[in-house]
């Protein structure tokens, strides 16, 4: 009577979780010291396919644990528990200049993870997998509510955590690409903050004369709508900006049409990518630190500076883009913009800075009643 030989199995735990939550990928029942390739595949909302892969060798028991074992090659190397996500790139033959961003936060990012025999780098669709599993990655936790906002000329989306509240609030502003970007706000609400994703580019491009001036009243009105919401603690509201949004955040914090950071009287967190190829962020951070020191308020400033990180420092495990297509909201011209960053260093910066951002918000919004500013320069 022949011996029973179990087939290889692949598990992802948790199979359903938030996008900033680590998962565990484990393959069992392989032959000992078997070379295998772990592969991740995601189809975006625009029907583009993204993939990542790592080369592994099973241990003496025929097991591979991605959180503990090192990848010897592929789209990432070393012990990288989330490398199958942050190293994703468009599959060969895809359109150029793509950037992976979640548009509809009410649905998950679905990732198929497969294991293949041998160390392979292409032909995944044509090669039979030994085992597969599917992971759902959510920006909205169960119970988070999404509410459209069109009030007093302000347009945005409000995300409300489960429960009656009141909760601290975060006004969330993105960059010069325009549009309504919701995924970071949805994730903040999943961590207990009433977050408003603000659409503002139509109000920042200036008047009919073409002067690019900030519409202070628009941003002040948006802040008031958030602050005065019945589920928001009115004295515990933060302003969060990335790229052009950081300029808006700093301007609001100092109540000035020029950014005079010496006037800042609330905690300020700056996140700097030292390989930013889009803005002179390191120099800007040095100027801010100098001005605040001269004004005697440098104790309010925390700066996180990351070598090898580029301009687009987003929530963790988001794929890195050194460059991507960009459409100017003013000219409607499509160009390729260089953001900078090296994939591994940038991805680690995203993970670390997000943890520090949540800690910063908890310290200053849950532990004390104060407005705070967070800015991705």
TrEMBL record:
SUPFAM superfamilies, alphabetized: alpha/beta-Hydrolases
All residue ranges annotated as the BAAT/Acyl-CoA thioester hydrolase C-terminal domain in the record: 216-256, 257-366
Organism domain of life: Eukaryota
Domain Acyl-CoA thioester hydrolase/bile acid-CoA amino acid N-acetyltransferase span(s) in chain numbering: 20-151
Annotated active site: 243, 276, 311
Single GO BP term: acyl-CoA metabolic process
GO function terms (MF aspect): fatty acyl-CoA hydrolase activity
Pfam family, one: Bile_Hydr_Trans
UniProt xrefs under InterPro entries: AB_hydrolase_fold, Acyl-CoA_thioEstase_long-chain, BAAT_C, Thio_Ohase/aa_AcTrfase, Thio_Ohase/BAAT_N
Family designation: Belongs to the C/M/P thioester hydrolase family.
Protein name listed in UniProt: Uncharacterized protein
Natural source organism: Megalops atlanticus
């Amino acid at each position: 009577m022949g011996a029973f030989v179990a087939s290889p199995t692949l598990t992802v735990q948790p199979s359903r979780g938030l996008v900033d939550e680590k998962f565990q990928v484990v393959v069992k029942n392989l032959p000992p010291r078997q070379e295998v390739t772990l592969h991740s595949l995601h189809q975006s909302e625009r029907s583009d396919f993204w993939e990542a892969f790592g080369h592994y060798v099973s241990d003496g028991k025929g097991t591979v644990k991605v959180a503990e074992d090192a990848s010897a090659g592929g789209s990432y190397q070393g012990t990288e528990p989330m490398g199958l996500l942050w190293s994703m790139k468009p599959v060969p033959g895809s359109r150029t200049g793509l950037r992976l961003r979640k548009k509809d936060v009410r649905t998950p990012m679905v990732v198929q993870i497969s294991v293949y025999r041998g160390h392979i780098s292409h032909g995944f669709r044509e090669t039979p997998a030994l085992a597969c599993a599917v992971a759902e990655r959510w920006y909205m936790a169960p119970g988070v509510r999404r509410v459209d906002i069109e009030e007093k000329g302000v347009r945005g989306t409000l995300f409300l955590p489960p429960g009656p509240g009141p909760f601290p609030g975060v006004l969330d502003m993105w960059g010069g690409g325009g549009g309504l970007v919701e995924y970071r706000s949805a994730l903040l609400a999943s961590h207990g903050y009433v977050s408003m994703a603000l659409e503002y580019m139509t109000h920042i491009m200036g008047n009919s004369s073409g002067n690019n001036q900030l519409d202070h009243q628009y941003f002040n009105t948006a802040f008031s709508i958030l602050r005065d919401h019945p589920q928001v603690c009115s004295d515990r509201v933060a302003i969060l900006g990335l790229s052009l949004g950081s300029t808006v955040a700093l301007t609001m914090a100092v109540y000035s049409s020029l950014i005079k950071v010496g006037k800042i009287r609330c905690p300020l967190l700056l996140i700097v990518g030292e390989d930013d190829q889009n803005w002179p962020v390191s120099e800007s951070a040095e100027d801010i630190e100098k001005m605040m020191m001269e004004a005697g308020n440098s104790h309010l400033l925390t700066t996180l500076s990351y070598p090898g990180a580029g301009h687009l420092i987003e929530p963790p495990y988001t794929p890195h883009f050194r460059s991507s297509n960009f459409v100017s909201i003013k000219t409607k011209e499509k160009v390729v913009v260089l953001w900078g960053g090296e994939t591994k260093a940038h991805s680690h910066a995203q993970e670390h800075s997000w943890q520090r951002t949540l800690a910063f918000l908890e310290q200053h919004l849950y532990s004390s009643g104060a407005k705070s500013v967070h800015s991705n320069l």
